[in-house]
Amino acid sequence: MTGKSSITQRTARHGSRKPRKFDLADLEWTNTIPECPTYHPSEHEFEHPLVYLQKIAPEASEYVFSFNNGTPATDFWLPYIASKNNFSRLPQSLLRLVDREIPGITDPMLYIGMLFSMFAWHVEDHYLYSINYHHSGANKTWYGVPGYAASQFEKTVLQHVYSNKILTKHGDDGAFKFLAQKTTMFPPNVMLQHDVAVYKAVQKPGEFIITFPRAYHAGFSHGFNCGEAVNFANGDWFQLRAAASRRYAHLRRMPLIPYEELLSKEAMQVYKSSRVRSSKKKPEDTASYQSYYTAFLASYAIL
């Protein structure tokens, strides 16, 4: 008798919550998210993937990720897995100079997904590029915000995603730490509501997703699947890496990659290659040289 009375009292005090009927119309906003473009590199272009990436980067970076399909793993991905010189350590990738193994960054990691398993909103460590290959299984849906809109994304998360309780207790820096932990997930319509650029893509088996530096992204699996991903970096990454270093220092996080050491090693490689170059073209005329030179000046100013 007493038990029934207490249950009745609690129900009356808190009120009953009526179940809300799900309606597909509630998801119509997903159709308003523009899709990123699909790229179809030729067999020859896939022989030099980072060169091809630089070719499409001016357009593809505006959409967060390039979406390449129709390339069998046996023709592209498996040779890198079987070799110690994996994708992140290609001659054009700066991560080839990192002298230790960092899972997921210098060495690929395998990801097993199931229905509705998700990866939370995040940017890659040190604002690196990333490449994700879908080996088999159900599709994945990706959402992403271009690097140029990263600051808008962060501002929107602080103002409209995290509660005042979190901000009051931990401050803005604390909120950024939560975001860096890769545990924050929310629907992309939050970005639409606050005029932040956001795009989507559905990744199928045999297709690649490439994310560009400082591009926030998240997504989920449609069912059981298997994918593989690793980071890499081009010469133009140096300037972004300096910004990432400042963010790490601000959040009191230990960097995973020795930036100054990497910059020095690459500069030595550029100097050596310029001395043995048979071409009449001067190293000062190359885009990579300009990236290193600018990065050196920026590092010198900081030091």
UniProtKB/TrEMBL annotation:
GO CC annotation: chromatin; nucleus
Residue ranges annotated for the JmjC domain, each copy included: 79-249
Pfam families for this protein: JmjC, JmjN
GO molecular function (one): histone demethylase activity
Signal peptide coordinates: none
Entry's EC annotation: 1.14.11.-
UniProt keyword Disulfide bond present: no
GO biological process per UniProt: methylation; regulation of gene expression
SUPFAM superfamilies: Clavaminate synthase-like
Gene3D superfamilies in UniProt: Cupin
Group of enzyme by EC: oxidoreductase
Keyword tags: Methyltransferase, Oxidoreductase, Transferase
Annotated InterPro entries: JmjC_dom (IPR003347), JmjN (IPR003349)
Ranges in coiled-coil conformation: none
Keyword set includes Translocase: no
PANTHER family: LYSINE-SPECIFIC DEMETHYLASE, TRANSCRIPTION FACTOR JUMONJI FAMILY PROTEIN
Name of protein: Putative lysine-specific demethylase ELF6
Organism per entry: Glycine soja (Wild soybean)
